[in-house]
Amino acid sequence: PKETFNTLKNELLQFNPDLSIKKNIICRTKSDVNSDISGYWNEFEQEIYVISSITGDGLDALVSVLVSAID
Fold first, then answer.
1. pLDDT per residue over 21-34, tens digit each?
2. Which string of DSSP letters, residue by residue, matches 25-42?
3. From CA 62, how far away is CA 47, in angstroms rounded?
4. How many Å apart are CA 48 and CA 45, to the nearest integer?
5. Measured between alpha carbons, how far is residue 26 from residues 13, 32, 40, 41 in Å?
6. How do residues 39-57 score in pLDDT, each as one tens digit?
7. Containing H/E element for 48?
8. Are the C-beta atoms of residues 58 and 66 closer than 8 Å to each other?
9. CA-based angle 35:36:38, to the nearest 5?
10. Could you give the CA distance from residue 7 to residue 13 in angstroms, rounded to a whole number?
11. Nearest to 49 by CA among 20, 23, 29, 69
12. pLDDT score, position 37
């Protein structure tokens, strides 16, 4: 996940360097599915918001942080 994140971030910065001043919010989806890559999410230094659209777990926290980022 971290390598993919860095690739996407670099592509966005090539498109618009001004995006570097924006806050990054990382959200991991499908928390209800067991996966062999779950441990790789520990590579991130910032907080990861974990959600499930099936169960609704974590959605309130994610919406809260998104609203705070907009204000």
1. 998 999 988 876 76
2. -EEE--TTS--TTGGGGG
3. 11
4. 9
5. 16, 17, 14, 10
6. 788 888 889 999 998 999 9
7. strand 48-50
8. no
9. 70
10. 10
11. 29
12. 61
CB-CB neighbours of 55 under 10 Å: 10
CA 1 to chain centre: 10
Two tokens at 15? 């498109």
The HSE-up count of residue 7 (CA atoms within 13 Å, CB side) is 4
Contact 20, 13 (CB under 8 A): yes
Task: Report the run of H or E that residue 8 belongs to, with start and end.
Answer: helix 2-15
Q: Which two tokens stand for residue 8?
A: 């996407």
